[in-house]
TrEMBL record:
<comment type="similarity">
    <text>Belongs to the Rht family.</text>
</comment>
<feature type="transmembrane region" description="Helical">
    <location>
        <begin position="107"/>
        <end position="129"/>
    </location>
</feature>
<dbReference type="InterPro" id="IPR001123">
    <property type="entry name" value="LeuE-type"/>
</dbReference>
<feature type="transmembrane region" description="Helical">
    <location>
        <begin position="6"/>
        <end position="29"/>
    </location>
</feature>
<feature type="transmembrane region" description="Helical">
    <location>
        <begin position="36"/>
        <end position="61"/>
    </location>
</feature>
<keyword id="KW-1133">Transmembrane helix</keyword>
<dbReference type="GO" id="GO:0005886">
    <property type="term" value="C:plasma membrane"/>
</dbReference>
<dbReference type="Pfam" id="PF01810">
    <property type="entry name" value="LysE"/>
</dbReference>
<feature type="transmembrane region" description="Helical">
    <location>
        <begin position="149"/>
        <end position="170"/>
    </location>
</feature>
<feature type="transmembrane region" description="Helical">
    <location>
        <begin position="73"/>
        <end position="95"/>
    </location>
</feature>
<protein>
    <submittedName>
        <fullName>Lysine transporter LysE</fullName>
    </submittedName>
</protein>
<dbReference type="GO" id="GO:0042970">
    <property type="term" value="F:homoserine transmembrane transporter activity"/>
</dbReference>
<keyword id="KW-0812">Transmembrane</keyword>
<keyword id="KW-0472">Membrane</keyword>
<keyword id="KW-1003">Cell membrane</keyword>
Amino acid sequence: MSIEFILTAIVVCLLPGTGVLYTLAIGLARGFRASISAAFGCTLGIVPAAFASIIGLAAIFHTSALAFQTLKYLGVAYLLYMAWAMLRTGGALSISEKPVASSHIRIAVSGALLNVLNPKLSLFFLAFLPQFVPATTENATEALVTHAAVFMGLTFITFIGYGACAALARDYVISRPTVLKWIRRSFAGTFGFLGLRLAFSER
């Protein structure tokens, strides 16, 4: 496994996306332990896309408009739901002085769905992983699985870092209601924007 793959994977993991936003929101609202569940769920949601790319199913999404559009609009609906959940009272970004007791399974499932319902993730893996596996590799499947597993591990570690930073910022946010209001609006607006961008994307 090359150092180029490790560095590229770290950069990709650090880029803000739906998983990062979700983990930050959970860290702010529920605390560090809950953010670990969010990070785990988002990482788990990568498995179907990685598996699809490895066995070639991602090519189906590239050639089948119906399959791609169906999953795309499910993803759009879920992103818009997350935007609404960020804004509503008692929703995903409802912050109190003490971390609210939450179902860690529910947090993880919501995080996983964000990635499972992202049709572009499988296309990303289809384009990303093969670049770092030489054509002369004897067992390409094993190499792809190893690279995917390392990418998921880096994703989990990176997201835990994001969650920890968000949890540390809780006290600052709690003491400033105006800041909290704009954070909720920013998260909701970002999820809404991502949903609309996905809705109007061709591929």
